């Protein structure tokens, strides 16, 4: 089956074979369809604090890869996807202390979103 939109929310980091996953997405995406994905940001400020305080980030043992936008962009482009939109996702409330570092540097946000199309 072919789909207009395929959404993978916080999923790609749990996949062992990223290339195989993206091939399956391309196979089931219509010609002008959209592939939308979100994933945690490897440079989320809490991960950095964990490294400073505990020597390593607290990451699920079920994660096979963490991404930063540039690394995910390269993976997608290498697998014939074109990124048409990128957004930082900030899960911290504007009233919380966690919002302060993100306000000054979006790259410290907890997650990001990419909207892609197949390169034809």
Notable traits:
single chain; 120 residues; alpha+beta; 4 strands; 31% helix; 30% strand
Give a description of the structure.
With 120 residues, the protein is an alpha+beta fold. 31% of the residues lie in helices and 30% in strands. It has four helices and four strands. The chain has helices spanning 18-28, 45-54, 69-78, 99-104; strands at residues 3-9, 29-40, 81-89, 111-118. The protein has a four-stranded mixed beta sheet with strand order 1-2-4-3. The radius of gyration is 16 Å and the shape is globular. The protein starts with a strand and ends with a strand. The mean pLDDT is 88.
Strand order of the largest sheet: 1-2-4-3
* Beta strand count: 4
Q: Counting H and I runs of at least 4 residues, what is the number of helices? A: 4
| Structural category | alpha+beta
Percent range of helical residues? 25-40%
State the distance separating the first and last CA atoms.
19 Å
What summary fits the major beta sheet? 4 strands, mixed
Which H/E pattern describes the elements?
A: EHEHHEHE
Strand content: 25-35%
Q: What spatial form do the alpha-carbon principal axes imply?
A: globular
Gyration radius, in Å: 16 Å
Q: Provide the low-confidence segments as ranges.
A: none
Mean pLDDT over all positions:
88
